[in-house]
Amino acid sequence: MTSSEIREAFLAFFEKNGHQRVDSSPLVPGNDPTLLFTNAGMVQFKECFLGTEKRSYVRATSSQRCVRAGGKHNDLENVGYTARHHTFFEMLGNFSFGDYFKHEAIRFAWEFLTETLKLPKEKLWVTVHRDDKESEDIWFNEIGIDQNRFSRLGDKDNFWSMGDTGPCGPCSEIFYDHGEDVAGGPPGTPEEDGDRYIEIWNLVFMQFNRSKNGEMKPLPKPSVDTGMGLERIAAVMQHVHNNYQIDLFANLIDFIAKTLNVSDHSNQSLRVIADHIRSCSFMIVDGVLPGNEERSYVLRRIIRRAIRHGNKLGATGSFFHKLVSALVQEMGEAYPELKAKQAFIEKTLSIEEEQFARTLNNGMKILQSYIEQMNGTVIDGEMVFKLKDTYGFPDDLTADIAREKGLTIDKNKFDELLANQQASGREQGGFKTDYNDTVEVESETEFLGYERLNCEAKVLGILVEGG
Ligand code: ATP
Ligand code: MG
Ligand code: MG
Ligand code: MG
């Protein structure tokens, strides 16, 4: 089954079971300033769970574009290292707003996996929250699952929340066993960090609203929120172990490999770049522009990281913006807004690339010579700070380079220096610090970049949303 076929089968299954099909909402949540990016299917329905918004339906299904690159759910560091994490992915979900609860949620999920997708039951593993006897009974008595493929876990694994505040509750998760050839143990064991047992579907039983002071108030009615990663279930259905081998990535990775002249398509940097072109393009589609604050800074960090990985593969000139066409080819049909904004995405990335290229080489040289001479395995916080401040190397980029060499960074020292800088910026100016402002040459480049970006947006006749 192709990814598109799986997406359609999922939505059709829940439609048949009385759910309203709802479009994906944008990556920038319209209803929630506490959240950096839409990180799950439930985000656009938050008010429905809280009971403060009523819709004409009480059951919904969607395929939601998500980004997990900041805040409570941040998988940026996992990309390229695990088989299952992306910064951008699609989450298939079904939702009940005070309508059905655990029985139906569990039955729907099991039926979809074992009957519609025809997955063998003996490849599935189920977890529940330790205190959730009700779900446990349903799994054993109504579904009849194998006791040997079942775990009871605590809050860390089986209590889901969107962020520090908002709707939350205990959950039950379904894992797929990719077989003995892959390293890793069942959920809840010390070996689970491997990629053998991959979590595919999370069924959250929404019962509480967590307030700022940590208080848990019951929701007006118990509800259901589920999420299944499209790329993960596609890997299962396409008999590959690694998400980056599925159809959605195959053409994209081919194209990147050709562009950068790389022959090994399982190269880690190729995968990182493939992931990053997806998240960066969709963030820009949804109105984020590279910059130095919040969402914009997350985007900038990801772009710079992608460029560095390209550089590592031997790219000498700009390449990242050239990959947008391949992404549009792959996903433009499912997301017409991506196709419509192709030229604008390319321009935005290309300006950012040009700007960073000037400083990348210098920064890399400085970091490399520091690493050659350093003692121990921890890169000094002052060095990390200098790279960020003077060369536009975000600290996570330095950490990424360090990790490849078996080193770490002194994050505490770095955070301290950053906090000092921010505090003195506040004293001086009274407005938020633009870190690049402190560097004369760089600040000029930044400025020109933005002037040009705005001009070009006008030339292209494109409205820069939120920018
Ligand atoms: P993991 O433990 O593997 O990091 P999670 O528990 O953080 O996953 P949930 O928050 O439960 O994930 O999200 C619901 C589903 O979304 C997961 O079961 C998985 O299928 C998918 N998913 C979560 N994070 C990612 C990601 N970074 N990339 C791709 N799919 C993801
Ligand atoms: Mg996770
Ligand atoms: Mg998990
Ligand atoms: Mg989970």
Write the layout of secondary structure elements.
Elements: H1 3-16, E1 20-21, H2 46-50, E2 59-67, E3 69-70, E4 73-74, E5 88-96, H3 102-116, E6 124-129, H4 133-143, E7 150-153, H5 155-158, E8 159-161, E9 166-177, E10 197-210, E11 216-229, H6 230-237, H7 247-260, H8 268-285, H9 294-312, H10 324-331, H11 336-340, H12 342-373, E12 378-379, H13 381-391, H14 395-404, E13 408-409, H15 411-429, H16 440-460
Parallel strand pairs: 1-2, 6-7, 12-13
Antiparallel strand pairs: 2-5, 3-4, 5-11, 6-9, 8-9, 9-10, 10-11
Helix pairs in contact: 3-4, 7-8, 7-10, 8-9, 8-12, 9-12, 12-13, 12-16, 13-15
The structure holds adenosine-5'-triphosphate and magnesium ion (3 copies).
Adenosine-5'-triphosphate binds next to strand 5, strand 10, strand 11 and helix 6.
Cofactor: Zn(2+)
Protein name: Alanine--tRNA ligase
Catalytic activity: tRNA(Ala) + L-alanine + ATP = L-alanyl-tRNA(Ala) + AMP + diphosphate
Structure description:
- This is Alanine--tRNA ligase.
- GO terms for molecular function: alanine-tRNA ligase activity; aminoacyl-tRNA deacylase activity; ATP binding; tRNA binding; zinc ion binding.
- One of its GO terms (biological process) is alanyl-tRNA aminoacylation.
- It is a single chain.
- Residues 429-467 have low confidence and may be disordered.
- Strands 1, 2, 5, 6, 7, 8, 9, 10 and 11 form a 9-stranded mixed beta sheet that branches. Strands 3-4 form a two-stranded antiparallel sheet. A two-stranded parallel sheet has the order 12-13.
- The chain has 16 helices and 13 strands.
- It is 46% helix and 17% strand.
- It is globular, with a radius of gyration of 23 Å.
- With 467 residues, it is α+β, with helices and mostly antiparallel strands.
- It has helices at residues 3-16, 46-50, 102-116, 133-143, 155-158, 230-237, 247-260, 268-285, 294-312, 324-331, 336-340, 342-373, 381-391, 395-404, 411-429, 440-460; strands at 20-21, 59-67, 69-70, 73-74, 88-96, 124-129, 150-153, 159-161, 166-177, 197-210, 216-229, 378-379, 408-409.
- It binds adenosine-5'-triphosphate and magnesium ion (3 copies).
- Adenosine-5'-triphosphate binds next to strand 5, strand 10, strand 11 and helix 6.
